[in-house]
């Protein structure tokens, strides 16, 4: 990877890390479910009319939109609104790699090797330390908020499996279409649970900071982030690109400290070291043998069982970042 692409990968990680601070800012104005609905609405329109069809069966678009959009981000926004700090949230969301491995083993019959299992155990220990850190901040509400964000990480992991089964050919187009699914059900759920008066007040009261947060999470983290990430995956193997996502909680925690005054305790620092190093152990692999398909590429076999360009089958095409994540690389942002 050349210097320019390294810079782009770091920029994407920074955009996704700071996204948690933007979410925290938007939640000071919008009710969480309404904010989630608006985030996906702004990301989907008008982009959905410009990017072309998703290139996957519609059932996967619907499932991805409901699990990733409504469930994952609904839980994340509710947890942060309930008191989960943005920096710690960015770290706990990396637990999606653990849930992805569990779901892949249970649903796809993937084998978890000893090295990967050890790394995931270290990451789980880091999440336990993060829970202690959240508990030390006081009260039962923060622990409940922590549970919501862990639930969001679990939904992240399940959506990885959906995306892997869908195998969309373009990451940005996939995200735009998935974003078109959650706005309506989330808006209805917001009216029912958060109340029409709170929603109407948030929509009719102008706040430059809230609007800026909304545009950042919709256009910056979703459209710009996935557009650049997909470009990098088209140029490099997923095993080269995916490790840069380990920088997301680094940028998330540091930006929360700088911009929101979130305390960095020794517990949160220990949790960060354990989670990031555990996911790195589980995800970073040795270079494959010369005869093997490169990581991040799917070798589609032809009728004779031959695969890839050299075998006479169809040319390999890069997996999108979510599908690569299902194989164990921590590539999911928020």
Secondary-structure-derived class: mainly alpha
Based on the structure, what is the oligomeric state of the protein chains? single chain
Shape: globular
Radius of gyration of CA atoms, rounded to a whole number? 19 Å
Low-confidence stretches: 289-331
Q: In this structure, how is the largest beta sheet organized? A: 2 strands, antiparallel
Report the portion of residues in β strands. Answer: under 5%
* Mean of residue pLDDT values: 83
Rounded to the nearest angstrom, the distance between the terminal CA atoms is 24 Å
How many structural domains can be distinguished in the coordinates? 1
Tell me the layout of helices and strands.
Layout: H1 3-27, H2 32-44, H3 58-81, H4 86-92, H5 96-107, H6 114-136, H7 140-166, H8 171-179, H9 183-193, H10 196-204, H11 208-235, H12 238-241, H13 248-260, H14 266-283, E1 297-298, E2 317-318, H15 321-326
Antiparallel strand pairs: 1-2
């Amino acid at each position: 990877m050349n210097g320019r692409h390294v810079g782009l990968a770091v920029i994407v990680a920074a955009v996704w890390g700071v996204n948690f601070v933007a979410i925290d800012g938007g939640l000071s104005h919008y009710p969480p479910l309404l904010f989630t609905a608006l985030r996906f609405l702004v990301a989907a329109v008008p982009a959905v009319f410009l990017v072309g069809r998703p290139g996957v069966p519609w059932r996967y678009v619907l499932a991805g939109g409901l699990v990733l959009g409504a469930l994952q981000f609904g839980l994340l926004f509710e947890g942060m609104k309930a008191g989960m700090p943005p920096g710690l949230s960015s770290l706990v969301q990396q637990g999606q790699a653990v849930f992805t491995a569990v779901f892949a083993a249970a649903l796809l019959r993937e084998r978890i090797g000893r090295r990967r299992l050890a790394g995931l155990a270290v990451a789980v220990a880091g999440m336990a330390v993060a829970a202690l850190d959240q508990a030390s901040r006081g009260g039962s509400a923060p622990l409940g908020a922590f549970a919501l964000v862990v639930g969001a990480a679990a939904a992240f992991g399940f959506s990885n499996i959906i995306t892997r089964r869908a195998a969309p050919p373009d990451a940005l187009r996939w995200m735009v279409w998935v974003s078109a699914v959650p706005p309506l059900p989330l808006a209805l759920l917001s009216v029912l649970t958060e109340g029409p008066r709170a929603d109407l007040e948030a929509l009719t009261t102008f706040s430059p900071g809230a609007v800026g947060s909304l545009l950042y999470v919709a256009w910056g983290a979703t459209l710009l982030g996935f557009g650049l990430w997909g470009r990098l995956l088209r140029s490099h193997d997923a095993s080269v690109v995916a490790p840069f996502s380990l920088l997301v909680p680094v940028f998330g925690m540091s930006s929360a400290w700088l911009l929101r005054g979130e305390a960095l305790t020794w517990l949160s620092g220990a949790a960060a070291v354990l989670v990031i190093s555990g996911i790195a152990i589980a995800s970073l692999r040795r270079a494959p043998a010369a005869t093997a398909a490169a990581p991040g590429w799917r070798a589609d076999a032809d009728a004779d069982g031959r695969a890839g360009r050299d075998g006479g089958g169809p040319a390999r095409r890069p997996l999108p970042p979510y599908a690569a994540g299902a194989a164990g690389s921590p590539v999911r942002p928020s």
